[in-house]
Amino acid sequence: MQILKMAKRAAALVVFSAAAAVAVAAPAGAQGVATGTLAFSGDAGDYITGGGTYAYSIAANDRLSVTADEAGNHISVGLTGANGDWWSLNLAAPQGQTLAAGTYTDAHRYPFQAPQQPGLDLSGNGRGCNQSTDSFVVQNILFGPHGYVQTLDATFEQHCENGATAARGEIHLANPAPPAELGIGLKVATAGTASTLDGKAGLNGTVECTAPATVTLNGSVTQVKHNVIIRGTYSVQVACTPGAPVPWKASVDPVGTTPYQKGQAEVVTQATALDPVYNTNLSVDDTTVVTLKKA
């Protein structure tokens, strides 16, 4: 059997953890936070905080969500307080870099910072900076696949409108280990049929998956007979469930009037599926020489 492949690359079959899959929301949108706190305060005269002190936590029924981009360059934290407060905190590494543990100085208001500069923005409750001079320190950060945020511990300082007064705070987020990515496998049987009634080629095979998924197969069949090229395409969908290979069949109608015939044909197939956890598309490509027999 063809080795199972992960998204757009060959890999061994990943064991899917159903328990982990339901533990957190898909990170393609706002990802829920299992455990977390956000706290900050400001100097007298700081516009964002009004000189006040704010503290929120999941344990106090405040809601925190986090979003990161695929490259891990930028993290956005959203806070909805049990008291009706709402805040957002954005942290970004310089363009082209992954946000990592370290000190980030000369940061400016996200997302308007220069490409070589880090970005930061704390805003909410109807207040935001037009520009800012900022810095932040990431003590700990851990990403999973596709922007999944497992851990974030950071402190930050924001000088709204580049003033002397500042807002200072810290963010701590913790989530379960990331669920495994979806894995799919594709097999095209090396034996097929060439119908003497309608000239169609009959194909079959199996697909495998590490989580329930709809797998779409798109393929082409090319055969050369007596210097004539015979081509056709096919598309089928398979409701794949993990645990055992799931069979599929396809009937391929040749383009033109020349039917498929007994002999070898090249079958090129792409299997695609949507990862149900990470909401990302993945694909597996296969080229198989199939021997068609009269049917």
Compact summary:
Keywords: Signal. With 295 residues, the protein is mainly beta. It has 1 helix and 21 strands.
The amount of beta strand, in percent, is over 45%
How many helices?
Answer: 1
Helix content: under 10%
Name the average pLDDT. Answer: 90
Helix and strand composition category: mainly beta
Main β-sheet, spatial strand arrangement: 3-6-7-8-10-9-11-12-13-4-5
Low-pLDDT segments: 1-28
Shape: elongated
Give a description of the structure.
It is a single chain. With 295 residues, the protein is mainly beta. It folds into two domains: 5-16 and 181-294, Immunoglobulin-like; 24-174. It contains one helix and 21 strands. The protein has one helix at residues 18-21; strands at 5-6, 9-10, 31-32, 35-42, 53-57, 63-68, 74-80, 86-92, 102-109, 119-124, 132-143, 149-160, 167-174, 184-188, 191-194, 201-209, 213-225, 228-240, 246-252, 263-274, 281-294. The strands form three sheets. An eleven-stranded mixed β-sheet has the order 3-6-7-8-10-9-11-12-13-4-5, with no helix packed on it. Strands 14, 15, 16, 17, 18, 19, 20 and 21 form an eight-stranded mixed β-sheet that branches. Strands 1-2 form a two-stranded antiparallel ribbon. Strand 7 (74-80) and strand 8 form a beta hairpin. It is elongated, with a radius of gyration of 27 Å. 39% of the residues are buried. The model is unreliable at 1-28 (pLDDT under 50).
